[in-house]
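DM from R.C. (forwarded with permission)

"hey, sorry to bug you on a friday — could you get me a structure for this? deadline for the figure draft is monday and I only need the backbone to look sensible"
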Amino acid sequence: MPLVKRTTDMGWPEADALWVYTSLPEPLLSSELERLSLAKFIAGTDVVTFQPCLNREYASQDRFVVEDWPLVNGTWTFRAVFDGHAGHETADYTASKLPTFLKEHIAAVLEKDKDPAPATIADTLSQAISSFDKTIGQALLDLFPDQDALAKMTDEEIKRIINDRGPNFAIVLRCVRGSTVLISLIDPTKSNLWVASLGDCAAILGGKDTSDEWKSKVLSVAHNGENTAEADKVRQEHPGELECMLDDRVLGAIAVTRAVGDFTFKLPAIYTERKVRGFIGRNVTPPYLSSVPDVQHVDLRSLGLSETFLIMCSDGLMDLDEHRLQLQDILSKEWVNIVGKHYGEKGTNLALQLLREGLGGTDLEKVSRMITVEMSFRWMDDTTVLVIRDL
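My reply, with the result:
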C-alpha cells in the first residue's frame, strides 16, 4: 500500500505556507522514529539523539558521553549531555576532552581519600568544569596576550594569526561557539549521585515509593534568561547596565546565562569588537556568562525508592512540550510517569518513549509530521535523551 502525502502548516498559519509530509502507519512509524533517533542501549543507559532536518547545515549540535570509570575504589558511572550552540566546535571539544579532565580530577581526590565526603566530590566537579572552561579562553589570550598591542593591530594582522587553517583557528572557534554541560556521576556503591548542570539541559530523578507511586525530583537548574533568579543574578553583577539582560537574553544576544565557551560574553570587548558589532556597545564589564555549574548531591539510599532511574536531556525535549517553563511542577512528573509506565518492559528503549511522547505520542499524524515534513530549515530543536537505569 503506497504511503500518503499530506500538507501541513506546522502550526504556523501566519507563515501562509504549507509543507509536504508523509503519513506513516504503524509499525513503520515507530521503526522510522527509532532509526532517525539513533536509539540504542549503552551500558545500562537508554539513548536517543534526534534532529530530523536533513539539511546538513542544521545537523544536530548535541553530544553525549556514556562512560564507566574504573578508579582506585571501584567503577564510577559517568554520563553527560552537551548541547552546542552557534556551531559544533565547542560541543565536540567538550565531549572529547571534559570527561577525561573530570576523571583525572576525581582520581586525584581518591588517591588521597578512597571515601571522600560528598561535598568534596561536588566541589571537585564544580572547580574542574570551571577550570576546563578557562583553558579554552586562555588559549585565545595566549595568542593575543597584550590588549594594548591587539588594539593597534590591523585586521589583516589579526587574520594572519587566526586564519591559519590549523590550531589557531580551532582555538578561536572554540571560544566563539558554546555548549551547555550536564553530567551525572555515581559512586561504585551506588549510594551517591552527583549532577552538575551548566546551561539549560535537565536532569530528573525518578523512582517508585513504598505506596507504589512514581516520584520525581529535579536535579538541574535552568541557567537561562527565562529563569528570573538567573536574570537577576546577571543584573546584580552588572549594576547600572540596563541592557545586560534584554528580551530574556544576556546582552540581548544569548539565551543561556552559563555555558562553556562563548567567550564573546566573557572577555574584554577588545577581543570581540571587530567580529560582533551588534551588541558590543553593551559589553562594558565582562564576564556576563558564568562557567560555574550548579552541583547537586543525592544520597540514593536515603530516598526509600525502588526502580530508581535518572533522565538527562537537552532542552529540545522541553521545547516539545507547551509546559516547558513549568519543568518542576509538570514536566518532571509527566516524564517520570512515562518512563515508569514502560520501566519493566523488556527491550523497550525508555529514552525513545519520552521522545515519542514529546513528538505526539499516539497521534500518528502529528508524529508523522514531526519526523517527515519536507522543510529545508530546522522545525524543532536538537533533542538528546539519556535514561540511566537501576541506580
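R.C.: lifesaver. The mean pLDDT is 94.
me: no worries. The CA atoms of residues 87 and 177 lie 6 Å apart.
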